[in-house]
User: Fold these one by one.
Assistant:
Number 1:
Amino acid sequence: MLKKTALATLAAAALVPLSQAQAADYVIDTEGQHAFVQFKISHLGFSYILGSFETFEGGFSYDPENPEASSVEMEVQVDSLNTNHAERDRHILSDDFLGADGFPTATFVSTGFEPSGEGEGVLSGELTLKGETQAIEMPVTLLGEGDDPWGNYRAGFEGSTTLTLGDYGIDMSAFPEAMHELELYVTFEGIRQ
Amino acid sequence: MWRNHRSGWGWITIALHWISAVAIIGLFVLGWWMVDLGYYDAWYNLAPWWHRSLGMLVLGLTLARLVWRLVQPAPRVPGKRLERLGAHLGHIGLYGLMLAVMVSGYLISTAKGRGIDVFGWFEVPALISGLPDQASIAGSVHWYSAVALMSLAGLHALAALKHHYLDRHDVLRRMLVARSH
């Protein structure tokens, strides 16, 4: 239900600002789940905790001839967090960190794309997490595109960026400096519509 | 004509029986074929999508069929006492195996909490997920119960033919044509 409405909104939103460009619209392949939203954060400076958000959806618009016009939107279900440890997941979702009850979704809406070379560039946009919206930049790379064996056309990307948790109202002051930031990594394939 | 009668089955029962027969044999063949498809085969994603969608529809149909079977009268069963008992147990076995195959299939796809999309029309939610090793265990149950179901269904067909040609009973005819009295 949510998926349908979100996709409809997405499709409608994608049509309006980009109708003048011949950009193709893609839906992120969460159905075949060739899409991942992961993070990596220090554990007390000793090692890393790796985690993943398993439920999300989104789409993007991309035209290799006119990469500046690219745009992306994603919506992540915060409570789909998985760090391979149920009790830790519960703690991270609590008000101590992500406050998933009050802020069940995190969203990213791009505001621009600056190509820096063949198949790469810097995506800028607004990330909303725990109700706080911040402008972020994320270097992204086109990994590949082409016809898949099942009759669709796919394009795949990856990107990562560093987030300061304090910017999103997540108080990490009780933890060492190394834990105040995390690395967000996103990779997905989109299916051209 | 629509409802069952002591002398024969109604059209609803007959339709449910034959639609189930065709769909379930089709699902078995489709399932058998699709698991060996190569990753680059054009049907690699499409065949399981058909299998899941059809399977969920047949599961719904089977639940409706069971309700209909329980609320409607059943025609008289011919034959000796032991034969009647065997037939009864065989039919219970068929219903049980149908449910086992379809429920286990459902549990494979929903093992990680994702619902099953049915032909893009609606989604069957994942009610049970995250059991230890759920997809693998449900997968084994799905395969063995499907083979058992096909075997028992084969026996069921042979028994129907035996009643028709050797015993001259009307059990096969009454599953083909509804009786009004």
Number 2:
Amino acid sequence: MKKINKSVSSVIKQIKNLYGNSGDLNTRVININGTCVGVLFMESSSGPGDISDRIIKSTYFVTDGDVYNNLYNHLKNNIFNAQVLTTNNFDDFSYYLSSGFTIIVVDGVSEAIVMETRAELDRGVTESTSEPILRGPKDSFTESHAKNLGLVRKRIKDPNLWFDEVKVGRRTETRVSIAYLNGVADKKTVNDIKKILDDIDIDGILDSGNIKEYLLQDKSVFPQILSTERPDLVCQSILNGKIALIVENTPFVLILPNVFVDFMHTSEDQYQKPLNISFTRMLKVMALIVTLFTPAIYIAITTFDQTAVPDKLLISLAVQRSGVPFPTFFEIILLMIIFEILREGDIRSPSNMGTSMSIVGALVLGQAAVDAGIVSPIAVIVIAITSICSLIFNDVDFMNGIRAWRFIFILAATFFGLIGLVAAGIVWLLKLSSLDSFGVPFMAPFSPLIKSSQKDAVVRYPLPKIFKRPLYLNNVDEIKQGGINEK
Amino acid sequence: MKNKIVLLLICVLLACGCSNYRELDELAIITAIAIDKSGDEYELSFLIANSPKAQTSSKEGEATTTVFSGKGKTLTEAANSVDSKCPKTLYYGHINAAIISEEIAREGFLEIADWLLRSPETRKQFYLMQAKDTEAKDILKIVEPLEATPSQSISSLIESNINSQSITTTISYSPFIEKVLEKGYDPILPSISISGKVKKGSSETNLEKTEPAGYLKLDDTAIFREDKFVGYVGRTDSQSINILNDSVSEIKIDFKYDDNDVVFTSDNIKTTITNESFNHFKVKVKGSGFVSEVNGKIALEDPSVVKKLEKKLEATLDKQLNKTLDKLQNEYKSDVVGFGNRLYGTYPKRWDKIENQWNDEYYPKLKVEISSDLAIESSGSLNRTIEEVRS
């Protein structure tokens, strides 16, 4: 801790040195009745206008002679601002200045007044673009930390909704709020997370994605932490006893611990009819299987296990394949890589280039390649089914995890046929089952099988029938809804 | 350590070299085979399904068929001679029909049964048929109308007949062999023949005509004794055999009532055979159905008439079954119903003594009592006959 110099001019000098005379550092010295008052703020991150006005105003109308003798105390008590702090630590100055606060130093006092004058440097609450839904609240998180906390707080009014704050990053000093329901969520997990965050000693954290990597250092390609920009999903998770990490300057909030089925759910699931949603979820499970295995099965049955194909289909496949110069494996890999490039290109390119991209993609991939005899039509169909089914999941990490395993399955099928594919499938299941995040098995509630938690796993029961929070989360309070004994 | 394991894995992957890897377009998919005998040699013909149409790109997905034939002292030799003619690897995994010539059937089928049964690649559930009045390989050459993939015409011909008529029979390869090997059982085979001209029927233009020059037809049923062919029986007899074997799904029986033709249709015929004593069997046929065709004037709404119709129907069926059985017992001496097998089940010791004389001595003398119990439950969509309404 460094003490604050009692002389305003030397404090200003120190600050200017600290920031290397940065142009956006504004230092104004006001002489009030012979006492020098220094007003320090960053033009770039503070709100404009009436900063110094407030100081003068707060002294102007006072005629009591005593005011000028004790200017510091008077300012502290009379500044027109909701958030006025004091500090006697010079080291804090840079954090406050960069965050958009205004610091007021008074000659002869070794304390400083800190006043909140943050500028609105975000885009306001808008609709979610990465997780669109049909029915349900449309707002999404923004880059403003206070707004993000507010979006959660206004939904859960219980004072037991606690935000534990940790600052991460030596240089960025990013605020990370650990949001959870006190008395519901597992306290041990909260402490574990806090400890991990405290131990991070990096210069900067710019997005919640950075923090993800510290929380779980496993080698799995599947994500175990969900990131979302939907406040309602975060609140659902918090109510279920999960923990959310709200990171400053990013709209993506992390939710943990998560299990495999969570990646097949959306917040919308809770707002629609349970029977229909159960059907949708089963479709998603089917899509998962299709997108994982289709190319591998195609390779296996056309190059090894032809006997497994019905007669007419085999003949049709054989005729389609004839004239294609490449082996099936190469054909599939070629198409898949082209599709992945197309997808990546589509995300990165500005939206007005997207149309030309998809036209070229569809024509080159779909029509011309078949006409030219480079690939067989059935291979295009296989890749099309695979890619369409992979788009049903909205978590990018999850999608990429599927992609990685799809390649592994393709390799297994190429070398060992259906037997290799089955073996690789078993390895995949074993890998998934061996994962756990903060003591929660990744494949719960299926492995280990928890009966009462099946009510909101693949099928969804009507809300009035779900009495307990997911049991695998090790919650302190498991009762979600009253009336469990009456029915 | 970990690096070593990875290295080992890579080595395993490279060393295995994809042992049974084969690209689909390098295979000649055989969908039917035909076995003939010419002189001392076997002639093996393969129907290969996936020859793409000339001058079209692969996207059209259309296939034409090609027939390759080869001769040899053994079937393997014949197959090898085909292999040397065919530009692709022969693939036996999808055979769905095998046709044997009459000559081979007469000499005994078991001689050649081994080859197909032994190969691990072939399915054992393909249909087995006998070519009647023609060489087996000609059957393969017929280009059938009404079927998208010509290679499927033979099996689809059989499959469409299984349910609708019960006047032919269907049997696949391994049940046939099982029946041959089983004690006190003789198998039957469907026969297939060509109507029209072979030459014209085997050209592609056959498809373009409204009335095809040649087409395949399921013909009489071939009766076997052990694995040797002994003779054909016609449609009525085939139907009777199917009834006796309790393997009918839908059946149509036509009979005369007061000089009017009546057709009775039933889909729940059930046959039970009981063993009364060592040489006495009782066969009971039970079922119900409806009148599907009446040419004449019969008061179908009158219950007493229906009773009379039933009586007449039962008598007709009894007569038909007895006639067939008589033919099998005395003319062909072939136990296709498996009475011997039932005796073997109930009297194993006595069976052992007579096993060798069964077909020649005991089977023809076997007393079989047939009684049928059929009920006419409705008269179709019409209550009365058209003739009746007119008068």
